[in-house]
Amino acid sequence: MQVSFDSDKRKLLSSLCHGAIFFSTALFSIGVPIVINLLSDDPVVKSNAKESINFHFNVWFWATVIGVPIAILSWITFGIGGILFFPVIALGFALHWGLTIWAILHCLGKPDEPFRYPFIFRVF
């Protein structure tokens, strides 16, 4: 017996999982893919939820590794360090938002195929 899943529901839930990262400064954003992973029985949605959780961890990890030293340098140099490293921060946001938009577009365009972010470490 083959089980079929609703394509529109799959698109919505997968896009919600990946789109939650736009609220990553609020720690509850990771709750969206966690809850969807627990409640959904669709294997593609579960895969997208796990990938989104992994992406959350990567964004937070790299923001800490790069952001804390820049913040300390900026504080020590009265803001000059922050200005000098603005291109690094801008690149980080461009990658963060660009990869998320790419994931959402992938989920909407190819709902039967889970999205995988390139170059991230995966805990789940």
From TrEMBL:
It comes from the Bacteria. The keyword Membrane applies. Keywords: Membrane, Transmembrane, Transmembrane helix. The keyword Transmembrane helix applies. The chain crosses the membrane at residues 12-39, 59-76, 83-105. It is a multi-pass membrane protein. It is found in: Membrane. InterPro entries: MamF_MmsF (IPR019109). This is DUF4870 domain-containing protein. It comes from Amazonocrinis nigriterrae CENA67.
